[in-house]
Each structure stands twice: as C-alpha cells, then as structure tokens.
Design brief:
- It is globular, with a radius of gyration of 19 Å.
- It is α/β, with parallel strands linked by helices and 320 residues long.
- It contains 13 helices and 11 strands.
- It has helices at residues 19-27, 42-55, 75-84, 99-107, 119-128, 151-161, 175-183, 193-196, 205-213, 236-246, 251-258, 260-269, 292-312, and strands at 8-10, 32-35, 60-66, 89-94, 111-116, 132-136, 142-143, 166-169, 188-191, 219-222, 230-233.
- The mean pLDDT is 94.
- Strands 1-9-8-6-5-4-3-2 form an 8-stranded parallel beta sheet.
- It has 2 domains: 8-202 and 294-312, Aldolase class I (TIM Barrel, Alpha-Beta Barrel); 205-281, no CATH class.
C-alpha cells in the first residue's frame, strides 16, 4: 500500500522530522514522515518537500497536525502543497478529527495513516476514510492521550475493531518490538524516539547524549491537568510544569514553559532544561548514535533472527 520495503514508519517529531531524516528513513527501506507543524506557511513546507525529493526517490509522507496550537495551522494550504508536490502519504494526529480533510486527500490519491491512542478514535478514523490506523500506546514520547493504554493491549484491541491495516507504536525501538507488533496483529510499526538518536537527525548533540545517559525510568508524564498529556525526559522544565499542575496554575502560566519556542531551545540549541524534551520509554533501549540505515538494518536482522529462533523451537507448531 505504501510502496516501501520494510514495515517501518518513522513518526513525525516536530523539529526532528526534516528532509535529511525523512529521506534517510525512506532510503533505508522504511517510510519517512515530515512534520508540517514546524512550518509557518505552505512555501516553507514546499521547499522542505523538494529538499527531501532531492535526497531520495523513495516514497515519504507528511504529517498534518490536528492538535490545538497557539498559532493557526494552515492545514488546507499544506494539503494542497503536498498533493501538488506528489506526496502520496499523509499521517494525521491530534485531538481533532481528520474528516474535514479526507475528501481533498482522497481526490489527490493520498493514503492516510491516522494515529490514535484509543479504540474509539480508531473506529472513527476508519469510518471517515483512513487507509491505515496507527495505534500508539502510552509508552510513546510526546502527546500520549488521556487513557494510558499500553501498546500490548491497545494494538490487538484496535486490530479486532477495524478492518483497515493497523500499525503499532509506543515503546518500539528494535527487532524485538517489530516481532511483538506483528504478533499482536499489526502490519508494521511506527517508531519515533529511536530515530532521534541517529546521525541524520538534526537535533542538538547534547540532546542525543542525554538520551544515551537516560533509561526508561527517566521520563515523566506532564500536562495531564490541562488534558494535554506529554511524555518527556525529566528536566527542570518538567519539574516546573509538575509544580504548576500541583497548585492549579492558569493555562497562560503553562505556556511560558511548554510553548514551542522553549522546545526549540532544547532540541536545536541543546539547552536541556529550557523546555519540554519529548521522549518515549524506549529511550532505555537506545545505547548509541548510529546512522538511520544501521538502525533499520538492525531492526530487520534482529526480527528475522527472532523468527528463525521461534520456528526452531516449534513455537508455531500445533500438536496433532
């Protein structure tokens, strides 16, 4: 359906999901996804799409952000632009329904992957026309929904509830995660955090080194009190947000810490305590910064080795 070699889709991660990373994932056999939300207008998105096209002749996608934002998202213009540029895949994620954009995307022959954290949203996504559902558990970094459903439970529930193909995300960083996702009934995986710690990812080296020092115990969930839960690395900004939540601070005060400008300082300038540091629980499985190709090759090779081991053990052989 997506025209890719391996069932590995890179999650859209705001400032990290630019042309270099997107193209590297696609060149390695997966599907790179560019984040549109970081661009102010359609021209900026068009320029980045064309840059990615100069780096790969393989399919890649663009994410349309449906989360609330402090500035209006020109999503209609973004969609017109990606269709004009021949982008064949869109991922949608956020608190709003993708329904208003579906007719335009279908007319543009664009395949739509709708990201969800609950079964009810998966059913809605299928009903309004999504071609695939990405079911992402609460292990994921960034926005993780309000229901705290882990990947191990969410994915088979979604698989049982929709007819379109399902992708699994949340906590997946290697071939073991890919095999587990396939065993749960998914057709492939969405991986975000693991691709942050790659050579092609444009985030600051300080951030990558911080990830290598961190374990699965070093993330924290913030912003639940304002119904915008995010999993982030534990830093001074996260501590401030937790303190605001404890005393019921007004939304305006939260914005001084959680706004995108502060996140940019963390990811692009390496000021690790300045703002929210989005990161999944699978940071505990990341031990080195390598190329995207090495990451994907390792995932595939490990998954194949696991498949061979399970077959040799007779795991899939039913008794007569």
């Amino acid at each position: 359906m997506l025209g890719i070699e391996y069932p590995i889709i890179q999650g859209a991660m705001l400032r990290a999901s630019l042309a270099e990373l997107v193209a590297a994932v696609s060149n390695a056999g997966g599907l790179g996804i560019m984040a549109s939300a970081i661009f102010s207008n359609a021209k900026e998105l068009r320029d980045e799409i064309r840059k990615a096209k100069s780096l790969t002749d393989k399919p890649f996608g663009v994410n349309i952000n449906l989360f609330p934002a402090t500035r209006p998202m020109p999503n209609e213009e973004f969609i017109d632009t990606l269709i004009e540029e021949g982008v064949g895949v869109v991922s949608t994620s956020g608190l709003r329904s993708p329904a208003p954009y579906m007719e335009r995307l279908k007319r543009g022959n664009v395949k739509v992957i709708h990201k969800v954290t609950t079964v009810r949203h998966a059913i809605h996504g299928e009903r309004v026309g999504a071609d695939m559902i990405a079911a992402v558990g609460f292990e994921q970094g960034g926005n993780m929904g309000m229901d705290d459903i882990p990947t191990l439970v969410l994915v088979p529930r979604v698989v049982d509830s929709v007819k379109v193909p399902v992708l699994a995300g949340g906590g997946i960083a290697d071939g073991r995660g890919l095999v587990a996702a396939l065993a749960l009934g998914a057709e492939g995986v969405v991986i975000g955090t693991r691709f942050l710690a790659t050579l092609e990812c444009n985030i600051h080296p300080n951030y990558k080194e911080w990830m290598l020092r961190s374990t699965e115990s070093d993330t924290v969930v913030t912003q639940r009190s304002i119904k915008n839960t995010h999993r982030v690395l534990r830093n001074e900004a996260a501590r401030k947000v937790q303190e605001m939540e404890a005393r019921g601070a007004p939304l305006e005060e939260f914005f001084t810490v959680i706004k995108g400008e502060m996140g940019r300082k963390v990811m692009e300038e390496g000021e690790l305590d300045a703002g929210m540091a989005l990161c999944g629980l699978n940071v505990g499985l990341i031990h080195e910064v390598v190329s995207v190709k090495e990451v994907i090759d390792s995932i595939v090779n490990q998954a194949e080795a696991i498949g061979g081991r399970l077959n040799s053990l007779g795991v899939f052989t039913l008794p007569h």
